[in-house]
Amino acid sequence: MSANFNSLLGIYDKPSLRQTVEGIFYRMRVGCPWRDLPATFGKWNAVYKRFNAWSRQEKLMGIFRGLIVEPDLEWTFIDGSIVKAHQHSSGAAHEQDAAIGKSVAGNTTKIHMAVDACGLPIHFSVTGGEVHDCKEAPKLVAKLPLANYTVADKGYDSEPLRTQIREKGSVPIIPRKQNSTIGNDGMDWCLYKYRHLVENVFARLKHFRAIATRYDKLKRNFESLVALACAFIWLPM
Q1: What angle do CA 124, 129, 130 make, to 5 degrees?
Q2: 44-56 vs 17-30: helix axis angle to the nearest 10?
Q3: Quick check: pTM over 0.70?
Q4: What is the pLDDT of residues 154-207, one digit of tens each?
Q5: Gap between the terminal Cα atoms of the chain
Q6: Cα–Cα distance between 60 and 65 in angstroms, integer?
Q7: Residues 158 and 185 grouped into a single domain
Q8: Residue 212 is part of a domain; what is its CATH number?
Q9: For residues 112-123, b (16+ Cβ closer than 10 Å) or e, as one string?
Q10: Are residues 39 and 101 in the same domain?
Q11: Which is it for the CA torsion 133, 134, 140, 145, positive or negative?
Q12: How many CA atoms lie within 13 A of 91 on its CB side?
């Protein structure tokens, strides 16, 4: 990497950068309040302000998107997962979108995820926990790259969604509910069994306690944490 490129990025001239990033990862891993960050990472307020600035500028989301290189788009799997919102995430009122809604579990957020055939995350969105998978799916599918097959569970049983997927040039593999009059004669159950790949991603994301339970008030800050965790999954690739 050239010196000119380094100076353009303005990153390597900051000696505390690694310390700051490690502090963000530590907080994401253990789910502690920012104020409780160990002193080894520097002043907690400095770490939080850097994270908040990167979140506002969508830099962490940009890192995740930049790491998505040559995804295997033979299959795409989509699903949603509920995250319990801690009381610290829904305290002071603010005008910005929080993506926290009321559901059976109380205050919750939902992560809508899409992964490729290798089980690597390629796109996600965050909504309130009360938002049904099928309601968010059209927006999610519209932003996905073209895949040969799009696989989802019964929660995505919707003819308009199937039509949208077909119009993109993909084949929908979505089982119909038991009360359907059409039935599942055309279902590829063998391919459907690989839907566990998207469940595996949720399991890996929730190793990070600040994602398994949401503590951030702002939607964009929680999205940045999810993006950082997805980037972490991509790093070995």
Answers
A1: 120
A2: 90
A3: yes
A4: 999 999 999 999 999 999 999 988 887 787 888 899 999 999 999 999 999 999
A5: 20
A6: 9
A7: yes
A8: 3.30.420.10
A9: bbbbbbebbbbb
A10: no
A11: positive
A12: 8
Query: Which residue reads 């002193």 in tokens?
Result: 39
Residue 96: predicted pLDDT = 63
Q: Are 208 and 233 in contact (CB under 8 A)?
A: no
Residue 178 lies in a domain: yes
Residue 222's domain spans which residues?
72-234
3-state secondary structure of 237: coil
What does each C-alpha distance from 11 to 5, 53, 71, 212 come to in angstroms? 10, 14, 28, 30
Q: Look up residue 220 and give its two tokens.
A: 């964009």
Q: Is the pLDDT of residue 116 over 70?
A: yes
Which two tokens mark 199?
Answer: 């469940």
What whole-number percentage of the chain has pLDDT above 90? 75
- Give the tens place of pLDDT for each residue, 218-237: 999 999 999 999 999 999 87
Q: How many residues does the chain have?
A: 237
How far is CA 180 from its chain centroid?
Answer: 31
Single-letter amino acid, residue 3:
A
Residues 46 and 81 in one domain: no
Query: In this structure, are 123 and 86 located in the same domain?
Result: yes
Is residue 101 located within the same domain as residue 167? Answer: yes
Both 164 and 110 in one domain: the answer is yes
What are the pLDDT digits (tens) for 59-82? 999 999 999 999 999 999 999 999
For tokens 């995350």, the residue is 121
Strands 101-103 and 171-173: unpaired
Q: Is residue 92 part of a domain?
A: yes
Q: Which amino acid belongs to residue 93?
A: A
Neighbour-count burial of 42, counting CB atoms closer than 10 A to its CB (0-12 exposed, 13-18 middle, 19+ buried): middle
